[in-house]
Amino acid sequence: MLKLFDNAWMKKYKEEWNKDPYLAKTLKEVCFTSIIGYGFPDEDKPRACIVVEDGYVIEAGHYIDQQLNWDLRAKEGHWKEWINREVGSTGLGLAYTTGKLKFVEGDYKSMIKNPTMASPFIKSFSAMGRI
């Protein structure tokens, strides 16, 4: 079994993201380019990150001081819960408002109000669930 956010896990995440016809294509249409970090709230830095260029992940692996546009943090148990079951906008909204999902970088409220961003954000969790 792959360990959450290690290099092998992140490589699989990259594959799942890029082959998801909705996720990558929708983000390509809005020219989404970003560096997204993932990790745990009790750590100084994220564990891993992806580099997204025009909707597609071009790099995935350990975080090495990249300048992040988004930095998502949650306890390992919460990540696993969201990965193991299909999570929707209500579940992620609740996770954010209760503090289970933290945005160290990035603006959750403006992103979730934008349909071209909100739906792919939710789909990114589905891609995690296929690993």
Automatic annotation (TrEMBL):
<dbReference type="InterPro" id="IPR036527">
    <property type="entry name" value="SCP2_sterol-bd_dom_sf"/>
</dbReference>
<protein>
    <submittedName>
        <fullName>SCP-2 sterol transfer family protein</fullName>
    </submittedName>
</protein>
